[in-house]
């Protein structure tokens, strides 16, 4: 009994929308879906990872682009608390380390207090800049300083007067310069002795003067030492006076801050250190030269006001319970932060106030999401990320120093404790590479969120999909879709999934279609998106990317590509293949021919010999060779050599979806029976001749249907496909209509013998005793011819 072709209801599954109520006329009546549909497995993985605080439970999200991975994670994180396991958030600041300015200290403050503390310190500096000059420029300070100075002057003057008087009584004049030099001169009455007058003295008088002067010098040196000690004592007293006044000023200004931040341990300790440092560097607040002040603020000198600034590295909002950072360009500096350099009057310098935060700093206590490929593409980023996750610390090191291996001076800031979840988005190939080549990967990314490409198509899932469509409409302020438009978009999703019983989860494709449909509807001044607008948008999409298809089809119009869709031919069959570009694929038929010659039973694959055949195609030829040998070579070698090729194929052939077509061509060449050329076939087979499913079945059928339209359509034309591909059929409406009218046929077979019967119109034959087939069957005819050759 001949195999019946498929009925039209098997070629396309319409969306009945049984899950929607009859009152639902458009997306306006649907509640938008606030989660990504069909990704429960991935969502559970994310929920599991976010619920565990231990190190290493970071997430690698696997899936192709367009599945809505990032959108799903973002929506989940924005909606859900992490089961109470979220980390406490802090504001992080860098301040000067007064003991070692190359190693800035980090301050941990409660959320929202970082900027407040910075402003408090700035206000403190402003108060001190005003208060110090006032404290040292008033009558009280001057009188106290003058008193100390007068005490010193009095003591100095009294001592020197006593010495001078004693010297005068002994005939010696004492003079002391302002530079501290002194002279002792022998007196001749009221005038100093000249050289002549001194020489006129007796030797005894001269000796008396010399002895007196020597004694006075000894006494004077002792007095000078006393004067120096008194100067030092005066300086100490003056400094003590200044310190006491400074302590009063600083203590008065800083006491409110110390009281305000007494419960913040880090800040309390810093204020104590800053208090002591200000007392050691009072002079920077008393600088009068504006240029010197500017230089102090811009230089690296330790006595500078910028040493008291607060660099707020991370400031968390009071309303932020869970920071979520998305790093689009994961370079080393953008992730781990960096230290800027500044220039002042030709001098390049840096300090703690020029430390800048990276995305890891901002995500601390929350989540950082990045693209895995981009992370791996950037130098040193992957190693730095692993180092930070292992140590659970953020060390801001100079990349330039590590790369150049030089001793360039740079800062070494104190490390910040790190509590963060990393979510990497990537494809399966990248995941495999990391698993295979990086043993640390599985320890740091223990959770895999595997995103589905499709979901089962049921009434419930269609209802969810309709709500998903409604969410896109609402989010993008589009025109609402009526019920038929919703159904058509769901049918389009099934076509994208290549399965009647599944829906594609590539949300980007659906969102793009809706945007273009909305454009078409608005351009036609419609108030609602209708099915016709969806169809037009789909046609527009295909028109933009189908240039190659039009070029290939033109070759059938001009006869450049030889193809017969009407007659019969021996050893010749129409096979189907898919041609794909980066964003489009279409089917096109091609001719396979087989010729035979006396030989040893070998199937000679011309494509493989010409190095145009791929490994999978070669495997398919070997499988069909095994099938032919199992049928016709059980007792003796097949005495024919077969040459098999794709005609007019110049770009290479791969895949095994033509193996059934090749078997049909070979059987025709063996038997001499002609094959119908108005039928094309696609499908692979195993060694037992069973038909196996192939990909792109819709495009292949549509490609042959289009060529039949070009060459001239007849009622007998059709396509043979594997039975296991029936559920993949979501064909164009014009093909469904042609089948319903009997103008085109589609046969679904389970064995290659059924294809041979359809092509030849004769039964294949059932194997009888001792491996013989009836003589009036296809296999019987082949067997008799082979036996004749063997004899």
From TrEMBL:
<dbReference type="Pfam" id="PF13654">
    <property type="entry name" value="AAA_32"/>
</dbReference>
<dbReference type="InterPro" id="IPR027065">
    <property type="entry name" value="Lon_Prtase"/>
</dbReference>
<dbReference type="InterPro" id="IPR041699">
    <property type="entry name" value="AAA_32"/>
</dbReference>
<feature type="active site">
    <location>
        <position position="657"/>
    </location>
</feature>
<feature type="active site">
    <location>
        <position position="700"/>
    </location>
</feature>
<dbReference type="GO" id="GO:0030163">
    <property type="term" value="P:protein catabolic process"/>
</dbReference>
<dbReference type="GO" id="GO:0006508">
    <property type="term" value="P:proteolysis"/>
</dbReference>
<keyword id="KW-0175">Coiled coil</keyword>
<keyword id="KW-0378">Hydrolase</keyword>
<dbReference type="GO" id="GO:0005524">
    <property type="term" value="F:ATP binding"/>
</dbReference>
<feature type="coiled-coil region">
    <location>
        <begin position="213"/>
        <end position="247"/>
    </location>
</feature>
<dbReference type="InterPro" id="IPR027417">
    <property type="entry name" value="P-loop_NTPase"/>
</dbReference>
<dbReference type="GO" id="GO:0004252">
    <property type="term" value="F:serine-type endopeptidase activity"/>
</dbReference>
<dbReference type="Pfam" id="PF20437">
    <property type="entry name" value="LonC_helical"/>
</dbReference>
<dbReference type="InterPro" id="IPR046844">
    <property type="entry name" value="Lon-like_helical"/>
</dbReference>
<dbReference type="InterPro" id="IPR020568">
    <property type="entry name" value="Ribosomal_Su5_D2-typ_SF"/>
</dbReference>
<feature type="domain" description="Lon proteolytic">
    <location>
        <begin position="567"/>
        <end position="762"/>
    </location>
</feature>
<keyword id="KW-0645">Protease</keyword>
<comment type="similarity">
    <text>Belongs to the peptidase S16 family.</text>
</comment>
<dbReference type="Pfam" id="PF05362">
    <property type="entry name" value="Lon_C"/>
</dbReference>
<protein>
    <recommendedName>
        <fullName>endopeptidase La</fullName>
        <ecNumber>3.4.21.53</ecNumber>
    </recommendedName>
</protein>
<dbReference type="Pfam" id="PF20436">
    <property type="entry name" value="LonB_AAA-LID"/>
</dbReference>
<keyword id="KW-0720">Serine protease</keyword>
<dbReference type="InterPro" id="IPR014721">
    <property type="entry name" value="Ribsml_uS5_D2-typ_fold_subgr"/>
</dbReference>
<dbReference type="InterPro" id="IPR046843">
    <property type="entry name" value="LonB_AAA-LID"/>
</dbReference>
<dbReference type="InterPro" id="IPR008269">
    <property type="entry name" value="Lon_proteolytic"/>
</dbReference>
<dbReference type="GO" id="GO:0004176">
    <property type="term" value="F:ATP-dependent peptidase activity"/>
</dbReference>
